[in-house]
Amino acid sequence: MPKLAVLNEADEEIPEGANSAEVVVGIADMIGIDIVNEPQFLWIAEEASRAHIPPDWKELTNEDGEVLYYHTQERKLQKVHPLILRYQEVYFKARSYTKQLESGQIGNLLEQTDAKMAAITASVMGRASKGLPPATPEVVESLARVLGVESKKEFFLFRVVKQTIEAYVEKKLDLSSVVQDLKDPMEFLRQIRKKQNQVDVIRKPTTVVMCQECENRAAVLKCEQCKDYFCQDCFNSTHATGKRRAHITSDVEQLVCAAFEDRVATCQCVQCGLFYSDEGFMHVHAWDAARPDLRNHLKRVINGLVCLECEHYNASVLCEDCVDLFCTECFIRLHRKGKRRQHVHLTIDNTGQIFRGGFLVPPEEAQVLTDRARSTVETGPWIPFRDDELNVYWYHLVEKRSVSQSPVDPVTGVDAAVGVDPLPDEEAG
């Protein structure tokens, strides 16, 4: 592999893996390093002198004898050696960091983080010593900023921060170490959350085959001769005359939302009998002001609920404490030891009905439990807190406001009350 041009011009023979002072100084000058006033950055030039040109770059010579460098992938031609540009960026970043360090900006930043954590710890422990709920919206918002959690977008991670504060206080752990403790787990949870959103708990088709003629309605027929998909009206109009009248068709079997024909149906209204996507069900049954009676209608999930753990078998157990869906094998494996053995589990039959201790759970409560378990946004931006009198109120992460009445998230249709944690004496009982 070719080296930098400065190295090739050196007369002195240099052992492999080392470079002469003349070569390093020459490269430093090409990068822009002042070797008299900035000798501390000579290591950058030394690293550049040992580096090989990246494989996608080719060295060429034009008709004037000038050396040019061509990138085969990006098809870019330049006169400056690509390694010089790369190590120039390293030099600029190192010089900028050094200036910030000398001016005390970096130290102040670290001190500010320590000061913020000290203030958060003092506030939390002060409330805990008085028997008050340790987590408040202000405290959790402050810790979320320190951890780099965007409260207006990462609702689930905000809830994790809140529950971590409560767990540290309950177990009497050192709250000042929470930033370091959560550094890797927070990134891990971000990746898990992305995967969960991709799987979306329920395995279902993601697209609807639309009519290729009008492009507005779902296709119900496929013409075997035309090889195109049509809704019934478009097929009738395009195949009414001529040779097309004899074309053979096959049915297109797909379950489409009754409210939005471009979306796959995921549930069925128990009372209406129609099929809807989750958004379509909410649009028709929750937001139709002209039909308030529709708000009491219940929905049944199509194709059953999938185990959140193995993502393969249908769920037969809903854990009230984990608020997750499990097949029997996964539930036993995860709940056979430790405190999870005391978790309350509900059973789900083949028709999607939920039973608690052999008794049928009321449809309204079953709806809430199922929606909460299926929801991948954890009741959206509404997060429940308790005030100093231990009364529940809800905090909106986007609008930064609080309400005392339990709201319903407009995206998921899940009542925010399902996210309320029980009081300590209720857990004990």
Automatic annotation (TrEMBL):
GO molecular function, one term: zinc ion binding
Keyword Zinc: yes
InterPro entries according to UniProt: CEBP_ZZ_sf, WW_dom_sf, Znf_B-box
Domain of life per record: Eukaryota
Protein keywords: Metal-binding, Zinc, Zinc-finger
Presence of the UniProt keyword Zinc in the record: yes
Listed PROSITE patterns: ZF_BBOX (PS50119)
Transmembrane annotation, as ranges: none
Ranges of residues in domain B box-type: 206-252, 302-348
Official protein name in the record: B box-type domain-containing protein
Lineage: Eukaryota, Sar, Alveolata, Dinophyceae, Suessiales
